[in-house]
Design brief:
The chain has about 675 residues and is of the alpha+beta class. About 15% of the residues lie in helices and about 40% in strands. Helix 5 runs antiparallel to helix 7.
């Protein structure tokens, strides 16, 4: 065997030393200079007494090494392995062993040492070594390394960092600001340049996962930065995102919050088997039409706003029995920082919350009562924007606590059926001035959501269907149980490079579940509509993909009643989208898209009809550095034409530039 064979294993052997020894200024042997590729390993072995060299102070690297000499090196190496007490259960023992075995790498390397002992068994015995004792020493080392690796895996730390920047400009001269696609007033009224309203945002999620024992785990997400203060709330559209005179200034304070903190503890309940129990600040999501967090920022991707999970303080239990799955939960919503602050108990924040229920249509402002304050949320904006489910838009209730359950059953080869029940309590606002408040429906303190859904396929055709109802009540008396439902059915099919989806939906004017079921331009969770919709997609090749869609709705009710609000069957809302994605390289792409929404409605005083338009043009670029790091650019052109409807009395045009760097660790 050549001396170089030992050097090839020297890097491994060096890691098995109990402590790293600093390199000498000169080579340990005259024939191993400091610039030799094996110098570091040979130096460590020499200083540890594993390799002694020859009387002439040479290492003799090129000369073949005898098995006897190799066995001597192994024997000396085994002497360097510390003797470890058998009991390593206590934390102090584990910490001490970690220090002793700081240089002992992995179980794989311990296994290599075991192979060396067995390979040179005859030579080691001639040296007077007890090979059986050496193997027992290796076995003991293996068990300790296993304990250490298990201990080190008990806690994992990771997370994500997002750096974001945004700038807004206006190009129209007849107004001081524009509405972005989130429905917020944007830009500095004193400047038209892109840098007249610029924001720099950063967001750090520190994720800590711990294995408490063989079955229980804990997880925490601690958030640092100014992105959540800028949003004001992840559960609703609230606060301001530009410095607008009279409306306030965007919040960019550096804040820290515990976004998630939960413990998962499985329990065994007789014939029910294992029941998963989760307690703490937990993420909760059911279905789009029952409970799902809205995305209140379309310009940046963030797991807190885009995954649909609502943070709640409470507990849930889940069990699966064959094809049947059951989940029950109970939770409190208010106050939770950046989720709900109904009564202002969290200092320094504007009121915000998770909302449910409805007293009137989001189009109420264009139907004869209090124009300018209801239906658009604030000021002179009457067109639907932001979410329909909001106290200022449809008279929704601010949720304080909730309880509910969801059950699913799998149907072999066909899909699954789900049933959802959700009960919420809170407070709703008083009826707005001018609203005749039929059946006193503007005053309620409870919302009950009932839903059923199906997802599956038949003959290669995907089928999705849902039906949901949201009843409002005051104590034990039902307030509203009419015009407060939805049903949505669609079919999907893919063949070759082409895919298509088509469906039909109806959503009543008083439907008010705390979910997230879609957008029409800057209008989130549209209600008081019914009609068909479709989506199309075609892949031209590996680098080019085209997508598009359309929604064609009319008013839910046949007649618009003065003083009550709502759309008539003559009112229409049409929406079109088209997008083109082109891969420049394997790591970069360009996205081009446009979204067009037209409202064909009567004017605010119900005396005529006009067709206001809202258009968003998008130009995007993305680059992926590696699996953990990506960069995105977006420039959006905003164009709104009111056409004298009173929806948004002055036309507005402008642009929004956004950039985001995301790093996962």
């Amino acid at each position: 065997m050549k001396k170089s064979s030992l050097i090839a294993g020297a890097a491994f052997a060096a890691t098995l030393l109990s402590a790293a020894i600093p390199a000498m200024a000169q080579g340990p042997f005259s024939d191993v200079p400091t610039d030799h590729w094996a110098y570091a390993a040979v130096d460590k072995l020499k200083n540890a007494g594993v390799v002694e060299g020859y009387p002439d102070k040479t290492y003799g690297g090129p000369r073949p090494m005898t098995r006897y000499e190799f066995a001597m090196a192994i024997a000396r190496l085994m002497d360097k392995i510390p003797v470890i007490p058998p009991d390593v259960a206590r934390q102090g023992d584990i910490d001490a062993i970690k220090a002793q075995l700081a240089g002992f790498a992995t179980k794989a390397e311990v296994e290599e040492l075991r192979k060396l002992v067995n390979e040179f068994k005859p030579e080691l015995e001639r040296l007077g070594q007890d090979v059986r004792a050496l193997n027992e020493k290796v076995n003991a080392l293996d068990s300790r390394v296993t304990a250490i690796e298990t201990e080190m895996k008990r806690v994992k730390i990771g997370g994500e960092i997002n750096f974001m920047a945004q700038a807004v400009n206006r190009t129209s001269d007849n107004r001081l600001y524009v509405l972005d696609q989130n429905g917020f007033q944007r830009s500095n009224p004193n400047y038209k340049t892109l840098f007249g309203d610029a924001r720099v945002l950063h967001d750090l999620d520190l994720n800590i996962k711990a294995r408490l024992n063989d079955t229980a785990t804990a997880e925490a997400v601690i958030n640092f930065g100014n992105y959540l203060p800028y949003l004001n709330s992840v559960a609703s559209f609230s606060g301001v995102r530009s410095d607008i005179p009279g409306l306030g200034q965007a919040n960019q304070d550096q804040q820290t919050s515990i976004y998630k903190l939960m413990v998962d503890v499985p329990a065994k309940l007789g014939r029910l088997g294992n029941v998963g129990i989760t307690v703490g600040r937990i993420p909760l999501q059911l279905t789009p039409y029952t409970m799902k967090l809205v995305d209140n920022d379309v310009y940046f991707y963030n797991s807190k706003t885009d995954l649909g999970d609502v943070p709640v303080d409470g507990a849930k239990a889940s069990v699966k029995i064959g094809p049947v799955g059951l989940t029950g939960f109970a939770a409190k919503i208010d106050p939770i920082k950046y989720v709900s602050n109904i009564n202002g108990s969290i200092s320094g924040d504007n009121p915000y919350g998770l909302y449910a229920g409805a007293a009137y249509s989001p189009f109420a402002a264009t139907r004869g009562f209090q124009p300018g304050f209801v239906g658009g949320g604030a000021g002179a904006f009457n067109r639907p924007r932001q979410s329909s489910i909001n106290p200022l838009v449809n008279g929704a209730m601010a949720v304080e606590q909730m309880a509910g359950a969801r059950g699913t059953i799998g149907l072999a080869k066909y899909g699954s059926i789900g049933v959802t029940y959700l009960a919420m309590t809170g407070t709703s606002p008083a009826a707005p001035f001018g609203f005749n408040n039929p059946d006193n429906r503007a005053n309620f303190d409870r919302v009950f959501v009932y839903g059923v859904d199906f997802s599956g396929q038949l003959g290669g055709i995907g089928i999705n269907a849902s039906g949901t109802k949201s009843d409002t009540a005051r104590r034990s008396d039902t307030v509203s149980d009419n015009g407060n439902g939805e049903w949505d059915v669609n079919l999907a099919y893919a063949f070759g490079k082409f895919n298509v989806l088509g469906g039909y939906k109806e959503i009543g004017p008083l439907f008010g579940a705390p979910g997230y079921w879609g957008r029409l331009g800057s209008w989130t969770n549209p209600t008081d509509i019914k009609g068909p919709y479709f989506n199309l997609g075609y892949s031209f090749g590996n680098n080019l993909k085209l997508e598009g869609g359309g929604q064609f709705y009319k008013g839910y009710d046949e007649d618009a009643v003065l003083g009550r609000g709502g759309l008539s069957s003559d009112d229409k809302v049409n929406n079109f989208k088209v997008g083109l994605k082109y891969g420049l390289t394997s790591v970069s792409n360009v996205d081009l898209g446009v979204e067009y929404t037209q409202y064909d409605v009567t004017t605010a005083n119900l005396t005529g009809r006009e067709k206001p338009e809202e258009i968003f043009y998008n130009i995007g670029y993305g680059y992926t550095f590696n699996t953990n790091t990506s960069f995105k650019l977006l420039y959006q052109i905003v164009d709104y034409k009111d056409d004298n409807t009173g929806f948004d009395r002055i036309n507005g045009k402008g642009g929004i530039a956004s950039a985001q760097l995301s790093v996962k660790f």
